[in-house]
Amino acid sequence: MSTQMSMQTKQPPQIPFVDLAAQYRTIAEEINEATSRVIQEADFILGREVRLFEEEFAAFCEARYAVGLDSGTSALELALRAYDIGPGDEVITAANSFIASALAISHAGATPVLVDVDPFTHTIDVTGIERAITSRTKAILPVHLYGHPAHMDPIRQLAEQRGLIVIEDACQAHGARYKGRRAGSLGHAAAFSFYPGKNLGAYGDGGMVVTNDADIAKRLEMLRNYGQKEKYHHLSQGFNRRLDTLQAAVLRVKLKYLEKWNAARRWQAELYHRLLAGTELVLPSEAAGAQSVWHLYVIRTEHRDALKEHLLSRGIAAGIHYPVPIHLQPAYQNLGYKRGDFPVTEQYAQRILSLPMYAELTPELIDCVAKSILTFLSANQNGQGLYEQLVGHATPSPL
Ligand SMILES: *Cc1c(COP(=O)(O)O)cnc(C)c1O
User: Fold this and answer.
1) Which protein residue has the closest C-alpha to ligand 1 atom 6?
2) Which of 96, 99, 133, 283 is 20 to 30 A from 146, alpha carbon to alpha carbon?
3) Ligand 1: does its nearest atom lie under 6 Å from the Cβ of 98?
């Protein structure tokens, strides 16, 4: 059971962060049949599997159209381009996200404008968006981080008032709901990623834009396919950014199981919650009206690094999403942000820890993770008590 995440350690963790091989074992026959069919039919570019997967995924998102692309980053970028967002335009997104949310904006030629997150959901803070809007703002790109939907009603309302486009970054939120409606149907368009570790993951890269706008869907179909409407007739300087047909065949098989896998993540989150309640840890939860798909189960603690090490020494792989906020990345020095600009995001970067979470994780393994955490916390509490006895006061918290 080797995974990407466990490569740095000499002993592979007994509880990996994700276990894609375990998932494959549950659906191997169907996957092998689907991929060999594509190869036998030599239907490699777009074709039947991509078209059917687009229809099925649009239906899953309760939206009209879906256009298959080569990654989630492409999906975000091409969605912006389809709305003619580019040089001179500003697009507002969350400081606490995977860097691709900002990269897509830059790649479209526009300027990312970052906003801090609300401390409860870790998603973009709506009052912050309001303050960040200028005459150059063209779009808002809220991120449904960790599988939890952003505050879409106030975001959409604000967008309507100011004439802005809303593009959901739903790359971590396949199947999430906000007030009963699916992620992917909550803005003008939404981008999904099928990176292998996502809730719905391919065996390579893949992405999708979902929208109810027929004209935008048509534009995306051209943009991904050299800007052509019919073969060798090019209306724009498009790209080669199509969803790979073999990946579409894989994803069609996996889509049938997504509800079941998301339901497994839900009870896993509940179990973690039950086992870790009443400790000094800050546990994740859902806002009223939100249904998360628990792409990640992210706890917070001031002793994050020590806890992560402790877990690793017990063969448990935990992750940090993300250790360096976008505005402090060398890649975005040009934006002119500095440390202190987004205090919630910066504090979380020091404190967040993602626990193992994948559909095949058993209650026994979750129990084992929780026990290791509790052992750490009780040992640590003694240590802290000693420190306070010696120094006479508690360590000051940075916020
Ligand atoms: C994964 C991810 C992306 C990028 O998707 P890729 O398929 O890796 O290009 C964008 N935004 C968020 C929030 C993601 O988690």
Assistant:
1) 72
2) 133
3) yes
